Amino acid sequence: MTKKERQLLVTTALPYANGSLHLGYMLESIQADIWVRFQRLQGNTCYFICGDDAHGTPIMLLAERLGLKPEDLIQQFHKEHAQDLKDFHISLDNFHTTHSSENKALSATIYKRLAAKCDITTRTIQQAFDPERKLFLPDRYVKGECPKCGAPDQYGDNCESCGATYSPTDLKNPVSAVSGATPIQKESEHYFFCLEHYQDFLNSWVHAGHLQAEITKKLDE
User: Fold this and answer.
1) Which of 117, 144, 167 is the last residue of a domain?
2) Strand residue runs (E) in the chain
3) What is the rounded distance in angstroms from the CA atom of residue 50 to the CA atom of residue 11?
4) Could you give phi then psi for residue 184, rounded to 5 degrees?
């Protein structure tokens, strides 16, 4: 009996376009590349894609510090990242950025299809906001005292001293890592994918033998 060809889409975590690639990312890329090459040798169709994560506060702040436009900084690191992956013979079919016209078109298409099926919802949430710089702060851009153990100078999502995880709003004496100002709480509207619409399918797939037992248990959490 002829083995049925598999259609596979493979990617890795997206590197952030505000610095050089680190060894951990290269390790992940090499491991993924080995698996992709194996699948292709097996006769399977395997699309291996990735790209730079080109959006976010860290890129904006670094570009500002260097006197560059964010787009120019993105292009600079994208070129470097692409060359590094090429030097390591990573067999990517495409390596774009989240800022590319291709990603914009595909993201808009996916969003419209999900919205048409009522799989998108909106919620208003409270976020830390820097009143001096007039911008919302990612978790790691808020620092303060751990609400569990009191350790100073901890990030807004977890304590490196006791290992506790929490919300930036739980920090004691929080400060903005951008300006040093005390963050205020401000509402912002966010869009969410309705994962609960597919809960039955996901539960059955996770327990159908596709995954290692340890991964299944972790997903059950």
Assistant:
1) 117
2) 7-10, 45-52, 94-97, 120-130, 135-136, 142-145, 154-155, 172-176, 184-193
3) 5
4) -110, 165
Going by C-alpha positions, the residue among 136, 133, 137 that lies closest to residue 64 is 133
Do residues 101 and 77 share a domain? yes
pLDDT the model gives residue 1: 43
Q: Which helix (H) or strand (E) is 137 found in, with range? A: none
Using an 8 Å Cβ cutoff, are 170 and 183 in contact? no
The count of other CB atoms within 10 Å of the CB of residue 155 is 19
In terms of C-beta density within 10 A (0-12 exposed, 13-18 middle, 19 or more buried), how is residue 167 classed? Answer: middle
Do 48 and 104 lie in one domain? The reply is yes
User: For tokens 């990030």, what's the residue?
Assistant: 155
Strand 120-130: give its sheet, edge to edge: 135-136, 120-130, 184-193
Say what the pTM is: 0.78
Question: How far is C-alpha 107 from the chain's CA centre?
Answer: 15
Label residue 100 exposed, middle or buried (CB < 10 Å: 0-12, 13-18, 19+).
middle
How far is Cα 152 from Cα 143, in angstroms, rounded to an integer?
A: 8
Contact 102, 177 (CB under 8 A): no
Which structural domain range is residue 139 located in? 127-189
pLDDT tens, residue by residue, 103-133: 999 999 999 999 999 999 999 998 899 999 9
Q: Looking at the structure, tell me whether residues 19 and 92 fall in a common domain.
A: yes
CA 71 to chain centre: 19
Instruction: Give the three-state DSSP class for 218.
Output: helix
Within-domain flag for 145: yes
Amino acid at 58: P
